[in-house]
Structures are given as C-alpha cells and as structure tokens.
Design goal:
Blueprint lengths: L13 H10 L7 H20 L5 H4 L15 H13 L5 E6 L6 E2 L9 E9 L10 E9 L9 H4 L8 E7 L3 E6 L5 E6 L4 E6 L10 E3 L10 H11 L9 E2 L5 H11 L1 E5 L15 H14 L3 E3 L19 E4 L1 H14 L7
Parallel strand pairs: 1-3, 9-10, 9-11
Antiparallel strand pairs: 1-2, 3-4, 4-5, 5-6, 6-7, 7-8, 11-13, 12-13
Helix pairs in contact: 1-2, 2-4, 6-9
The structure holds 2,5-anhydro-1,6-di-O-phosphono-D-mannitol and magnesium ion.
C-alpha cells in the first residue's frame, strides 16, 4: 500500500486538476472535462495491458484463447477497442477517427451524439512492443463543424489550429498522461499503487538550452540536401546553441516527450527511401497535429519544413506529412535550410 505520508507536495489527481481548470471557464458545460476523464481511464486500462506485454505468449497468442478462456488480442487492437468502447456511448462525441481504422468511426445510431470530435493513434510505435521499448497513445479533440446528426468526414478534416485539446499517454518506465486544453501543457504520472494519475509536471515549458536532435539517421542517404545541411547544423556549435546530442527511440511519443522535457528537435522528413510515401511517414491528423498543438503550448513550434503544421488543411483522413517539431529556433532553421537547398522538398 502507498504511504500517503511519503508524498511531500500537494497531491493533485488528474480529475481534480481538470475540474479546477474547468472552473476557470464558467461557460463550460463539463463535457470536455468528462471526455478527458474518459481518456484518462482508457490510459489506465491500456497501461494495465502494456505492462504485461510479452506475457501473452505465455498465456496465449493473438487470436487464441488464454488460460482464462478469453481471447487474447494484440495490444494495438486492444488499445483501439478500449478507446472506442469508452467513447462510443457517452453522448460527448459526434464522430471519431483512428489511425487504425480506414474510414471515420461513426457513433452508433442507438447512442446520442455530442459536440466533440476525437481523433487518436491508439498505440503508436507498436513495432517497439516486442522489444519492450516505450510506446504511446496520441489524441486530439475538436469541436464538430456540422450542426446536426452524426458527425461527418468534414468534422475530422480540420486544421490543427482548431484543436480544443490534445495529449498523449506514454507507456514507459512509468505511465504518463500529458495534455493541454490551450492553457499550457501539464503532465501526470500514474501511481500504480493507487491507480491515479498525479500531477507531476505542471506548466511544462521548453528550455532555451536544447540538448537533443532526434531523427532516424539510418535514412540519411535518402535525405534531401536541405535536411542533410540541417543535420550538420544541429551537430555543430553555432551562435544560437551548442552542438546537440543524438537520441532516437523510434517511438514518437517517447522521442517527443524526452525533447519536451530536455529541449531539442524531432524530425521525420520527406525522404526518397519509399517513393510510395513522398510525404514522410507520420500522419497529420493522428500524430503531427496533436503534438504540434502541445509543442506550441510549451513555447515551441512544429513545421512540415515550409509552414506550420497547425495551418495545414487536411484533405485526406490518413494524410502523411513531414514533421519538424521542438524548440522554435531549431525548427525555424529547418525551414530556412530547406528553403535554401530544396525548392522541391515537399513535392519529392
Ligand atoms: P506507427 O504509427 O506504425 O507505429 O509508426 C509510427 C512510428 C513513430 O512512433 C516513430 O516516430 C516512427 O514510426 C519511427 O519510424 P522509423 O522506424 O522509420 O524511424
Ligand atoms: Mg502511429
């Protein structure tokens, strides 16, 4: 059991914090507050499985039954189902969309609809599960645009600038939930002994002394000259900064989280490696936009190399986008070098 006396600071649960933030908006109906609670609950349920990853092989593999006679699911399918089931019936959402699902996810006819739109990547970095490396969930919340009935594709295809809230859950050495409703970025750490997310990182701001750059340097031969020049610039001492160290996990939430706390830049540029993915690998709606919203709230910036991620009007549900995200000064330099060296960078 957790000894309450072992906590030195004020104990603030995520529920209390979200509620206190809502109270500073007298016009709020509580719907967004409850939606964030639903996501915190989903986070706990998914975390309870990620900490048992690997045991499925002992207890039964995907598609088989485990010793309790339950069907064992792959973790990403489990995360998808958990998020869907916690949100399909609440009357808070008009529509959902997920990286794992090809079309928009309607709210079933038997349930009421509400004013918000939820987009999510249920388990990002899932190739890391088998090697016991951190993974994450990413989410974004919009207000619906359509005025009645079930939500539509148009409700989902909104620029990130319209986000009302966004966040992620990091399943790492501890589980953390980090979110913003447009009033700073706040981080909570799950205390597994009491099953509560406790405020551990209020008002996260990027440091002005960034430490890290994060990129899959294995793709360097396929980069454009602008991205090559940018990487060399990051490595050198320059008037703006000391040369940065390389850190790359290959799990976006974990890479983003480290750079948010320590300062730096993450990038997944457009490259010539896979001609079928000319816009890079990451998805605008489920990955780039929510994290871009958070980074701006923490004093940073996110770009596709030519413009702010948050200003891009999505045209397709699963649109990919090059991503440069982190300290503003570092991301703006990427834009400058891409402008100088690759006039054709985004139309590769
Ligand atoms: P996923 O959505 O299929 O899990 O892929 C996204 C992940 C990100 O977490 C990570 O930043 C990137 O893929 C790593 O890709 P790569 O292995 O090409 O460096
Ligand atoms: Mg993903």
């Amino acid at each position: 059991m957790t000894d309450a006396n072992s906590y030195t600071g004020k104990l603030v649960t995520i529920e209390r914090y979200i509620l206190e933030q809502q109270q500073s908006h007298p016009e709020a109906t509580g719907t967004l507050t409850n939606l964030l609670y639903d996501l915190a609950l989903a986070a706990k349920i998914i975390a309870s499985k990620t900490t048992r990853a690997g045991l499925a092989e002992i207890l039964g593999s995907a598609g088989e039954e485990n010793v309790q006679g339950e069907e064992v699911q792959k973790l990403d399918a489990f995360a998808q189902r958990t998020l869907y089931r916690l949100n399909d019936h609440t009357g808070r959402l008009a529509v959902m969309a997920s990286e794992e699902v090809e079309e928009i996810i309607p709210i079933p006819e038997r349930f009421p609809v509400g004013p918000y739109v939820l987009v999510f990547d249920p388990l990002d970095g899932s190739s890391n599960i088998d090697v016991n490396v951190s993974i994450g969930t990413i989410f974004g919340i919009y207000r619906r645009k359509s005025t009645a009935g079930r939500g539509t594709l148009e409700d989902v295809l909104q620029p990130g600038r319209n986000l009302v809230a966004a966040g992620y859950i990091l399943y790492g050495a501890s589980t953390m939930m980090v979110y913003s409703t447009g009033n700073g970025v706040h981080g909570f750490t799950l205390d597994p002994a009491i099953g509560e997310f406790l405020l551990s990182h209020p008002h996260i701001r990027l440091t002005d002394k960034p430490k890290y750059y994060s990129v899959n340097q294995g793709y360097q031969p396929y980069w454009t000259p602008g991205v090559q020049a940018y990487t060399e610039w990051l490595q050198r001492d320059t008037p703006e900064k000391k040369g940065l160290s390389l850190r790359y996990i290959g799990s976006l939430v974990a890479d983003f989280h480290r750079n948010l706390l320590a300062g730096g830049v993450f990038y997944y540029p457009a490259d010539r490696k896979d001609p079928k993915k000319p816009g890079g690998k990451l998805r605008l709606i489920y990955e780039a936009n929510p994290l871009a919203f958070l980074i701006e709230q923490a004093g940073g910036y996110a770009s596709d190399g030519t413009q702010a991620i948050l200003d891009i009007q999505p045209t397709k549900l699963h649109q990919r986008v090059p991503l440069f995200i982190g300290n503003r000064i570092l991301v703006e330099q990427a834009e400058a070098l891409i402008r100088t060296h690759d006039q054709t960078a985004v139309s590769l």
